[in-house]
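INTERNAL AUDIT FORM
Audit reference: QA-55
Scope: verify that the stored structure record matches its stored sequence.
Auditor: D.O.
Record contents follow.
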Amino acid sequence: MPTAPRLSLNEASIVAKSFFSINAQEVAPLEGYYDQNFRIDSEKGRFVLKIWNLHQKTEFLDLQEKVMNTLSMAEIRCPRLLETAQGGTSARLSIEGQPPYLAQMLTWVEGVQWSEAASQGPEAFFKLGGFLARLTQVLMPISHPAALREFKWDLRFTGQSRPHLGAVASTRRRRIATHFLDSFESRVKTKLDDLDRSLIHNDVNAFNVFLDESATNPLGIIDFANLVRSATVGELAVGTAYGILDQPDPLRSAASIVRGYSAIRPIGEREVDLLYDLIALRLVASVLNSAHEQKLDPDNQYLHKCEEPGWTVLEKWIDIRPARALELFRES
């Protein structure tokens, strides 16, 4: 996987003007995993300039556009793409000394990031669960060939993270990750393949969810790089895994999310049975891939910020009896 593009602030300003007719008054970097993002402030408003490596196929960008249009029609706040000066919604860049990239300009999503919310108690987690259920319902009918991919962030392919165990220095943490990976291979994988599938966002986290101005109700979502057709329950599992980061009692917080989800979209028994493992497996994939990518890109601070909270939850999660988690999730 290529590292993220490395455009300078000045180069980003030139791209904004040359391809999108936006004269940047201020340019600021934003965090990203595969791509490079900039906040662009101008007389026309605030925008996000997104720079993609060319490994990102145009068919997948088409899927993202379809998803954003569908969410907007469902009144879920999300970015909208601007057209380039030449027509279309992406521009191919050729910058001296760098590989070719694709550029897109998106509208800025107003609201409070989940990560900035002052209070994240049971009611907030309940509402997050409801948002995950609504997101699931809106995305389920969407069909697109670009969503049919073998993807390391798809829970069905969590086993692909196992080779990255060697990037983890701590013996205890390697044992924790190995425990859940072994469970995936022996118990979860076959059952997961039998569950209902649909398109899922697959990356609902504290930096991608936006709340209303009162910072209490989730109403928007950004970042569609992880879209994939996978087990429908994956939306709940991934959103819960990231939602319980930095929580003193991750199981109780998880149960509140599941309860909020179930209030809108009831969960089947086979899905509930796998939730404890699926939540852990998303965190395992996250920490192992972050550890691996940090060796390749040691200056990427976003990777380190994502890794440590995941380990903290996993160190608590492995001490939770799966039967106890199942009991709480069923009560939800």
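Auditor finding: record pair retrieved intact. Residues 269-296 form the longest helix (28 residues).
Action required: none
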